Amino acid sequence: PCLMRLCFPLAEKTGKVLGEFCRCYREQYGVALFNNVRYEIEGNGGPQAQLLHRKVPLEDHVIYSGNLFQYIEENKKWRNRFCVVPHNYGLVLYENKLAYERDLPPRVLVNSAGYKILTSVDQYLELVSSSLPGVTPKSGHSPILKCPTDFPLILWHPYARHYYFCVMTGKEQEKWRAVFQDCIRHCNNGISEDSKVEAPAFTDAVRMYRQSKEQYGTWDMLCGNETQVLSNLVMEELLPELRTTIGPRLKGKAQERQRTWIQISDAVYRIVYEQTKAQYDAMMAKCEQERPQMESTIRTDMDQIITSKEHLASKIRAFVLPKAEVCVRNHVQPYISSILEALMTPTSQGFAEVREVFFKEVTDMNMNVVNEGGMEKLVEYMEKLSQLAFHPVKMQSCYEKMDQLKLEGLQQRFDVSSTSVFKQRAQIHMRQQMDDAIYTFETLLHQELGKLQSKDDLCKSIQRILERVLKKYDYDSSTVRKKFFREALLQITIPFLLKKLAPTCKGELAKFQELIFEDFASFILVENTYEEVVLQSVMKDIMQAVKEAAVQRKHNLYRDSMVMHNSDPNLHLLGEGIPIDWGEEYSGQTEAEPAADKRRRAKQVVSVIQDEEGFLPYEVGAEALLQPGSPEPQELEDPDPGAPPSSPDGVAEIREALAKESLGDGTQAEERLTNAVLASPVPGADVPPEAKVPHAVAASPTPRAETPSPCAGTACHWPSDKETGEEVGPPAGECSPPESVGTTESGEGMQTEF
């Protein structure tokens, strides 16, 4: 009822926030368009990358799949779910594996942007308690959540609904945590960098809006696509008022009040999301409509606009620069080296680990291909290698290096709310560099294959190409890291400087507006020019600090004077060709593969490792699944006592099943992994799990062969890009949230449970 009365004010308050943001965006759109056109005309690119870049890394591929338990809030029971992670990194949850294979609709679809993965119920309860101050369950009372195993996996969001999972072993928990973290990392990076106008306009508009509210520094909820980020922006303002209004009216025990608050927050978030999406899309359509005329004006009057902007900048510089330089000298310069060192150590260790993992995988492949012999094995290993950058578990050793990043006292001094922004950015760079190295390696190897006469030639060629690619990787990773360090230092210091200078400078900026010609007012903003002057005041010190770090060679950085020019003149031409499909090109098939078979095979790159010794409770009752065409059971119905056994759903039942399993198998139950890992990239190939290389060299153990996809020959359901959103009915008595929110490959959409 409280929420019902708030529905109209909620729309009004949301509209007010969005109206202010849209004004900021329209201003920044003109500036971003001018900067983009100027860059096209003048050109100002940095060093040329030596590695090739794969244009479509994971089209029509599944990242991961496997079983886990999910807590169903509607009936307070735990149910088995088969989880599939498609190429767009949405979490798609099916009733079970057979439901996925039979193309039945999924139960849950989750876009994980803005979520945090927790592996402790206590940690989750602490976050829940902090979200609704003053509501704490009494000692001895049942908490809001009970987990049937010691290995929970909880997706927590400050505004949207939470998702509760658990698995049965510590190793499974580690694997799924890596998978979920990979999904979060990818979905958080939802604003496409390929958009050279819209993306900078949007991020600058968010920053300007928050600064107008006296909120400087990094923002943890700049996560997901534009609509998600805007929804977070609205919720950041609405939630405190919502908590004050509704919190005291919640009835029941502390646990029930916490649960109700989470549901209310999620319902409000959905309403905000739908209103935000409609208003943002309308604004974008209007900007696109005006773009041709604006771009024509820019191209016609480019010289006059540049002259006008430089005149404005000179006046602002004369007023601001002396104050800014004093502020930099006293409050920033003494700490730049400390910040840089804190950033460089974990980042450089992570990139070094990427290099090591790549080297080891290629070296092992080389030795195993020589021992096993034949092009068929090379094809099998190359298909695995081509997806190494997107293997959540194998890349985890690289990503976890960034967990060491700590700014200590610097974090409070410069108002950095969290280091997660920098961690995730560095991890995305690591994944991209790994994929670039692999793509360059497979492109060069593919070019060489026609010239090779024997296995010895193949071995030598692989080794020679590996050395070439590692040199290119060292150069590119140095370039990427130096750029990352400069951007991170600016991201930390510029908001701090703007906040320090605001009392003496910001109020005086209005007088500079008269220096801008009215015809150019859409492309030149006083506020942006002021920030550029502040940036110039600290940029020299930042560039010098990074340059000195490169000279020390402590972190394997190249000096700026070392530039690789066209070491492989034809390499980038090769990268423009048709993507290599190792399985199709070297499968030995003389007839064209049917389109349906090719599509099905492409989906089965990642699958489930089967449990060879018997079923764990995930699979209990799998034989009792409905036959095709039968009605699907309802989640809230009580089970029929005479029905065949189904998946355990209560805490006691699951624990009992676990106890029976552990008694039957002893200590081996802990070691068996029934959840998902990467499977053979040659679906349908008959490779038994115990397969071994007959002449493997001891120094390089053969990677364990993996079970082919159980979906081979079956028309598996392939989630479309819309399957990272859901439809949900509103709780009784609450305002109706939107019926559906679609999600695209870029991460758009919001999710709850069906």
TrEMBL record:
Domain PH: 61-185
A Pfam cross-reference name: PH_Niban2
Region (Disordered): 626-650, 680-754
SUPFAM superfamilies, alphabetized: PH domain-like
InterPro entries the UniProt entry points to: Niban-like, Niban_1/2/3_dom, PH-like_dom_sf, PH_domain
Matching SMART domains: PH
Similarity section: Belongs to the Niban family.
Protein name: NIBL1 protein
Native source species: Rhynochetos jubatus
Gene transcribed to yield this protein: Fam129b
